[in-house]
């Protein structure tokens, strides 16, 4: 590492001004630094140096007496953690489905796929194959959705919960700005009603109360009901983010489109939304990350998402039940990988699109 | 404001006296309690070039924005090429496809290239095949001397270039009337001339033009009539020579003194 004198001087000055400006500040800084080093080294010792990696019998882990992490629990239980109660012999299917689904996500992030027909083929095809792998039929043993669990559930609820909420959210945002009083009223009431209640209550409604309203003999799959509830819930939030984007658009853009004779829908499709949605990318990714993590709430209506599968895999085993911390850390790592990837992608997307929007 | 001396161009011959293409009768327009237009009546002949000037807030922009219903009027009537402007979307659409507009701040679509800006409305509104629309667009871009920039985004062009693209974009709809709302006011002085030259060329081709502008050199060169507005009223209108040499009203004289620096 080489550093020019000026950066060294600057660093020194920054330290002096921000961390050591008075004896009390200096003492606080040193204390916090010591604390951070102490905690960091303890965690590092526990998680890495003293840890047991790979397969190991539970007795070896018990012998550590908490001095090191027992990653053997993940090595032993990872299938249950990822796929929950899905029949063990068929677990290659959710595994393949998750890989395929992630491939669809990555592919649709690429510029080449940004054409409506290519995206439609990719998503309809990818979703159909994933659904077939998960549910079975056509040569595969059928697995009811009540046995689905783990990461596929989390990914499905989060991704479709955002993707399908988008058109509805855009419609609500446009409705809220509409000149037609009824359309505006319906949009405002929907958005304010849904935003005013917690997701948990919406899930309860979908899972328990909905069945009471349906005629005898007609039932909709519980997972599907939860999925629809999440879509309807997210749409209200997306609507407000989109509305912010619409308001950010200069009035002159609309006037120019109107003066050229574009109708309402043409104007919104070709001029307004492409610009408005671009400026909302950071906010949209923010709410997508939120949605992704909020899907863990579906456990209250007995749908077994990834987080619950991890917990259940560890605590249901009498031998391994003490090593739930390692299990949760594993879950944390998986959530973090997905969220971090999304955050990086959104940064790339903003930069990429802003090249076109320099004006 | 750039001065009159900027464009010393030979006057464009007067338009042939055509039939009436725009007819305004007793037009009133309010923004809330504020009355922006008071009892305006005006006839514009086909091929006529009109310059509208006046102090800021005099209603001149509002007037031309009423001609393509960017603003809705509350009373009186506006008829453009035989079509009465009212709440009917069909009428509004018919008028808008005949009336091109150029704005002070260009209002190009920043997410589309120059060419895409120009073909958007012909393809979606006039249902032209893309190839035909692109050929037309390239022709007009050539005409405003910007053909080599077709693949660029508006943000990559100078203000003067952007305004010329905006003119080409409006022309691509083959309008019969062009409205200019202070087209040079947001430009750096050295770019004013390139835009005015484009507008003068358009005037030579016989386009019906209504220009809100303070470019009095432009008014002298191409206008058949100069209209002076103040406080929402048409105070005075006359051919440019008469208008500049013998303004009738005191308000016009004061305005001209300020703007012409004499």
Structural commentary:
The complex is a heterodimer of chains A (359) and B (262). Chain A has 359 residues and is an all-alpha fold. Chain A folds into 2 domains: 72-86 and 143-358, MetI-like (MetI-like fold); 92-138. Chain A has 16 helices and no strands. In chain A, helix 7 packs antiparallel against helix 14 (281-294), helix 9 crosses helix 11 (222-248) and helix 11 packs antiparallel against helix 14 (281-294). The longest helix of chain A is centred in the C-terminal third of the chain and has 31 residues, at 324-354. The radius of gyration of chain A is 25 Å and the shape is globular. Chain A starts with a helix and ends in a 5-residue tail after the last helix. By secondary structure, chain B is of the alpha/beta class. Chain B has 9 helices and 10 strands. A 6-stranded mixed sheet of chain B has the order 6-7-8-3-9-10. Residues 1-8 of chain B have low confidence and may be disordered. Classes of the chains: A mainly alpha (359), B alpha/beta (262). The interface between A and B is medium-sized, with 22 and 27 residues.
Overview in brief:
The complex is a heterodimer of chains A (359) and B (262). With 359 residues, chain A is mainly α. Chain A has helices at residues 5-18, 23-49, 58-64, 72-83, 92-108, 116-135, 151-163, 165-176, 181-195, 199-213, 222-248, 251-259, 264-279, 281-294, 306-315, 324-354.
Shape of chain B: globular
Helix content of chain A: over 70%
Identify the strand order in the major beta sheet of chain B: 6-7-8-3-9-10
Question: Quick check: average pLDDT of chain B?
Answer: 90
Quickly list its features.
heterodimer, A: 359 residues, mainly alpha, MetI-like fold, 2 domains, 16 helices, 0% strand, globular, B: 262 residues, alpha/beta, 6-stranded mixed β-sheet, 4-stranded antiparallel β-sheet, 35% helix, disordered N terminus
């Amino acid at each position: 590492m080489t550093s020019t004198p000026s950066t060294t001087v600057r660093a020194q000055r920054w330290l002096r001004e921000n961390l050591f400006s008075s004896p009390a500040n200096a003492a606080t800084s040193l204390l916090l630094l010591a604390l951070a080093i102490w905690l960091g080294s303890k965690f590092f010792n526990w998680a890495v140096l003293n840890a047991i990696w790979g397969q190991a019998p539970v007795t070896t882990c018990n012998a550590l007496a908490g001095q090191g992490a027992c990653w053997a629990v993940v090595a032993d239980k990872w299938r249950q953690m990822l796929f929950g109660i899905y029949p063990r012999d068929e677990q290659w299917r959710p595994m393949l489905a998750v890989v395929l689904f992630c491939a669809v996500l990555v592919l649709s992030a690429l510029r080449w796929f940004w054409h409506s027909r290519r995206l439609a083929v990719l998503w309809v095809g990818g979703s159909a194959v994933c659904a077939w792998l998960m549910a079975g039929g056509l040569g595969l043993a059928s697995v009811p959705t009540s046995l689905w669990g783990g990461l596929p559930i989390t990914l499905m609820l989060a991704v479709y919960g955002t993707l399908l909420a988008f058109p509805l959210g855009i419609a609500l945002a446009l409705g809220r700005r509409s000149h037609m009083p009824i359309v505006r009223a319906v949009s405002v009431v929907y958005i304010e009603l849904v935003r005013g209640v917690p997701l948990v209550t919406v899930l309860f409604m979908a899972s328990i109360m909905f069945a009471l309203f349906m005629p005898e003999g007609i039932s909709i799959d519980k997972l599907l009901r939860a999925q629809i509830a999440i879509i309807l819930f997210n749409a209200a939030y997306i609507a407000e983010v989109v509305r912010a984007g619409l308001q950010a658009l200069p009035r002159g853009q609309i006037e120019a489109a109107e003066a050229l004779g574009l109708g309402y829908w043409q104007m919104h499709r070709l001029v307004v939304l492409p610009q408005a949605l671009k400026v909302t990318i950071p906010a949209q990714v923010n709410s997508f990350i939120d949605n992704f993590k909020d899907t863990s709430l579906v456990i209250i209506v007995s749908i077994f998402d990834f987080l619950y599968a991890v917990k259940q895999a560890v605590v249901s085993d009498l031998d391994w039940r003490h090593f739930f911390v390692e299990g949760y850390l594993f879950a944390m790592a998986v959530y973090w990988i997905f969220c971090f990837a999304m955050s990086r992608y959104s940064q790339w997307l903003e930069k990429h699109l802003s090249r076109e929007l320099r004006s | 404001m750039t001065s009159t001396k900027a464009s010393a161009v030979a006057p464009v011959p007067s338009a042939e006296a055509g039939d009436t293409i725009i007819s305004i009768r007793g037009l009133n327009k309010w923004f809330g309690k504020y009355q922006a237009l008071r009892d305006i009546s005006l006839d514009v002949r086909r091929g006529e070039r009109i310059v509208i000037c006046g102090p800021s807030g005099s209603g001149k922009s509002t007037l031309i924005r009423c001609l393509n219903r960017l603003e809705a009027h509350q009373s009186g009537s506006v008829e453009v090429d035989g079509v009465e402007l009212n709440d009917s979307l069909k009428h509004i659409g018919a008028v808008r496809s005949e009336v091109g507009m150029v704005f002070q701040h260009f209002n190009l679509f920043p997410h589309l290239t120059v060419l895409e800006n120009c073909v958007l409305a012909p393809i979606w509104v006039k249902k032209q095949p893309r190839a035909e629309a692109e050929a037309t667009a390239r022709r007009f871009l050539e005409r405003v001397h910007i053909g080599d920039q077709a693949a660029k985004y508006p943000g990559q062009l100078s203000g003067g270039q952007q305004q010329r693209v905006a003119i080409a974009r409006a022309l691509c709809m083959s309008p019969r009337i062009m409205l200019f709302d202070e087209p040079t006011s947001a430009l750096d002085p050295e770019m004013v001339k390139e835009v005015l030259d484009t507008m003068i060329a358009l005037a030579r081709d016989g386009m019906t033009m209504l220009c809100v502008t303070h470019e009095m050199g432009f008014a002298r060169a191409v206008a058949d009539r100069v209209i002076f507005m103040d406080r929402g009223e048409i105070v005075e209108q006359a051919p440019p020579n008469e208008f500049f040499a013998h303004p009738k009203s005191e308000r016009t004289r004061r305005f001209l003194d300020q703007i012409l620096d004499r």
